Amino acid sequence: MAEPSLPCPTGSPDADALPRCCETHPDWPTLSQHLVEDFPDIPIDDLVGEVRRARDAVERVSLPTEEALAIGELIIRHQLMMRAGHVREVARLDPERHRRASA
């Protein structure tokens, strides 16, 4: 039986896929080293912070190690791509204040 794939929000699994350097990573330090190489314009402290946040998130939901690394990488790469200006931030709340009609 084939492994189920994660749903793609665009409907096409290849559309707008985040680029990845490897199919899988054996551990968090290897993933971190690859991210440093892939995002040289991101300060190391910011990169480490993103890795820490993603790792905490996947550990909270008790994912198996291989799945945790894959999901964590997607989270981290997306965040780093936004920081580097490679993708637009689109999921933002409208900060505009709305006046309530007085009754």
Describe this structure in words.
By secondary structure, the protein is mostly helical. The chain has a domain at 28-83. Helices cover 46% and strands 0% of the residues. The protein has 3 helices and no strands. The termini are far apart. Mean pLDDT is 78; it is low at 1-15.
**Rounded radius of gyration (Å):** 17 Å
> Shape from CA axes?
extended
Number of helices: 3
Largest sheet report: none
How far apart are the first and last residues' alpha carbons, in Å? 61 Å
Instruction: Kindly state the number of beta strands.
Output: 0
Derived structural class: mainly alpha
Order of helical and strand elements: HHH
What is the residue-averaged pLDDT? 78
Provide a quick synopsis of the model.
This protein has helices at residues 28-38, 44-60, 65-83. It contains 3 helices and no strands.
Output the keywords.
103 residues; 3 helices
Topology:
Layout: H1 28-38, H2 44-60, H3 65-83
